[in-house]
Amino acid sequence: MSNSAAEKGKIAWPDFIRKEFAANQFNGRVGTRLLSETERVRVWEIRLAPGERIGFHRHVLDYFWTAVTPGQARSHAEDGTIVEAVYSAGETRHFVYGKGEYKIHDLENVGDADLWFTTVEFLDSANAPLELGYGRHGEASSGRERLPSEA
Asked: Which InterPro entries match (predicted)?
């Protein structure tokens, strides 16, 4: 997708989504809670109640996620697209990024039940890991949030 097509897609995003994208496009916190970190891997949990979302974050490391629960989600991607997805418990996807490659997106639970994923990042990937900022108890400081209409 060209840059102009991506910008046209982003125009359809709500204003708060565009602002958050601009502010968090280098956020390396890819989950709501960091469960474990060694010299080889980071293990994350994403737990979202209906209507909750994890804000924009950047994937630069090879990783995989597994859906622990079934559910529905919406994601805004850097290229301006909005993706709706349905997940099955146990569904797993793997991603590999070459030097300089990355993906930026958010994730919102648009279903009527909790949505739960486990994500494992491999620290020995082609790209250096991004720095992380932490809230209390290892939770990502961007964490979960309610949409402005639900506040």
From this structure: RmlC-like_jellyroll, RmlC_Cupin_sf
Q: How many CB atoms lie within 10 A of CB 4?
A: 9
Q: Give the burial string for 110-130 (b: 16+ CB within 10 Å, else e).
A: bbeeebbbbbbbeeebebeeb
Tokens for 70, please give them: 């079934």
Task: List b or e across 77-106, with b for residues whose CB sees 16 or more CB atoms inside 10 angstroms.
Answer: bbbbeeeeeebeeeeeeeeebeeeeeebbb
Q: Give the strand pairing for 41-48 and 92-95.
A: unpaired
What domain range includes position 21? 3-129
The Cα 32–Cα 44 span in angstroms is 7
Task: For residues 73 and 110, give the distance between their C-alpha atoms in angstroms, rounded to a whole number.
Answer: 5
Total domain count for the chain? Answer: 1
Tens digits of residue pLDDT in 91-150: 999 999 999 999 999 999 999 999 999 999 999 999 999 988 654 334 443 444 444 444
CATH number of the domain where residue 117 is located: 2.60.120.10
Predicted confidence (pLDDT) per residue in 3-58, tens digit:
555 566 788 888 999 999 999 999 999 999 999 999 999 999 999 999 999 999 99
